[in-house]
């Protein structure tokens, strides 16, 4: 179990948030509803989706390494 208040918990949460927002950007109805705002609190979802779409290879590798770390090394 990963604690959210530790550094690795924050990294896991951030990676899952970025991956989820990037996936939601591919769904047309959710894209217009959730990711239409680019500023403010709702803009965080849009910015995470852009990070996930543009940096999909480093994000995927980070998810793989964090999964390996959490499952086998921690």
Automatic annotation (TrEMBL):
Record membrane topology: Single-pass type I membrane protein
Any one of the GO CC terms: Golgi membrane
KW Coiled coil (keyword) present: no
Localization: Golgi apparatus membrane
Transmembrane segments: 6-24, 44-72
Keywords: Golgi apparatus, Membrane, Signal, Transmembrane, Transmembrane helix
Family: Belongs to the KISH family.
Task of the protein: Involved in the early part of the secretory pathway.
Name of this protein: Protein kish
Lineage, broadest ranks: Eukaryota, Metazoa, Chordata, Craniata, Vertebrata
């Amino acid at each position: 179990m990963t604690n959210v208040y530790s550094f690795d918990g924050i990294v896991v949460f951030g990676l899952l948030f970025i991956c989820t927002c990037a996936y939601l950007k591919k769904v047309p109805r959710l894209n217009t509803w959730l990711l239409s705002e680019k500023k403010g609190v709702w803009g965080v979802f849009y910015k995470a989706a852009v990070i996930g779409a543009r940096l999909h290879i480093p994000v995927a590798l980070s998810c793989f390494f964090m999964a390996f770390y959490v499952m086998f090394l921690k």
